[in-house]
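hey so i finally got around to running the thing on that chain from the lab meeting. sorry it took forever, my laptop kept dying and i had to restart like 3 times. anyway pasting the input first so we r on the same page abt which one it is
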Amino acid sequence: MPASRLQLAAESGAIDLPEGTFGWLNANSGSTLGIDDHRLHATQSFFPDHARLEARGISVSPFLQRQVDHAVIQAHRSKAASFNLIAQTLEHTSPGALISVDGDKTDGIESILKELKRRFDGVESYSKAHGKLVWFKHPDVMPDISDWIDVTYLYPNGWVTRAGVFSADGPDQGSKALASALPVLTGKVADLGAGWGYLSGEALKSETITELHGFEADFHATECAKHNVRDARARFHWSDVLSLEENGFDVVISNPPFHTTRKPDTTLGSAFIHKAADMLKPKGALWMVANRNLPYEATLASRFRRVDVISESGGFKVISARTPKTSRTG
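ok and heres what got predicted. didnt touch it at all, straight out
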């Protein structure tokens, strides 16, 4: 398992790791800090990574729930979310605690370092592998960090989103394209990758839906969806879509993710298609949206007997796939 920058910095002598417990915020499930697991209290809101940390025997929750002696933060892709994680650590540590932030250049670690130097004294850094570890001590007198604390966005129509969730600034164009193309839906519906609930809410305009289950890997997005979709037919589940065992759905809707890093990768979207086919009844239908350049047609043809492109506009294609084949047939 690869070493984190914190471990490499400690091994180089650039930083001394003190005794005591460590909060590990936005923990990277695929790396090691060089700290005994029993000293770690991790946070991870992405369900697959949360499950991997739990399988390693590390104490983990979606957000920091206890006081710790020190903390290391893995920078978030959203700078607002990263600063909120720093604020959480300062709330759950005492003066003198070691607070460190580990991030790649693409995570905005340079601007995080600049802002930390503006507000705190004694900020140090260690560079390695296109990124930095930066650290400072929890001060006796705190600067004003009130702008780092509230990362919830409230829209005039009542929607709530949160910094760091997908499309936090409003419905994304792909979901809007799919919502506008949906027919009247009937029966039991699943929304795979439900996000903060926009698409589920639009689908529930069909009064013939009997129940809708939204499955989402981001804990914070799931909590937003519960707030945004106040319909008795809706249930939202923090879960790993690819590990679902549910079936018996009449319809699956999805705006599947197409990357786990910053580079496009159709593997995840294709896996969503396979999962949708497994979840549907024999005469069920998948309605999905994707970027026009993503080649999902072969995967769809392998799992469904009829595949139609319903619309293509604004760089997106809306696809209807009906009558799933079994995985053996596919």
